[in-house]
Amino acid sequence: MKDHFQVAIFVLLALYGCTANELPVDERLVLKHATVIDGTGAGPRDDVTIVIQGGRIKSIESGSKGRSLVTDRIIDLHGRWVVPAFIDMHTHMKTGPGQAGFLKALIASGITTTRSTASTPESGVKLRARLSSGELFGPRFFTAGRLIDGPGSVHASDIAVEVSTEEQIREEVRHQAAEGVDFIKLYVGLTPNLVEAAINEAHQFDLKVIGHLGRTTWLEALDLGIDALTHSWYAGLAHSISPP
Fold it and tell me: What is the pTM of this model?
């Protein structure tokens, strides 16, 4: 296994001084002699030729079936692996001078989609707009707004909005929906009645709800209709199904 990790790299065209989308539309990029893992559960395919044209994979052929033209740009990937791009399902994007470099590093690590599970507007919906417009280079980006928590949140000075009533949490969900978030994030200090109010309000806007919960257990949240859960904290899945 160690030897496999030594030869397994992510084939990223940017490392070769170009991306597939930067090639002239008629020029083909041909990756030869690669080992391919396609993500379907099938085993690795050895000695594969991948033809890319116009930013899209045109063909994937094994062995001698993979032919190239004299006008092709050819990269020999013998001993290297090609895998599908990765999705980072849980990140908290930062702002500041290091942000652009971090976004490029995600791409360079093979991550082409990321989900920020709690964000300020600057590190969330505004960043998503900059990425979508091409102002910044980085992955496809989905984001929550500020996490919603009960009174005394440990993140109150950073990315949390504190609420104590059902109307307050409904109002905050409406506010984040108007900002354009992709989903709502609920946090550890919320009681079941507040979680339920948030879920019901978010679903009115076709927004999904993710929870890093505490005072509300995972099983309670599931019964209330939450869409996704993250982290098994003191009232996470393991604690929900085990006796005291």
Answer: 0.80
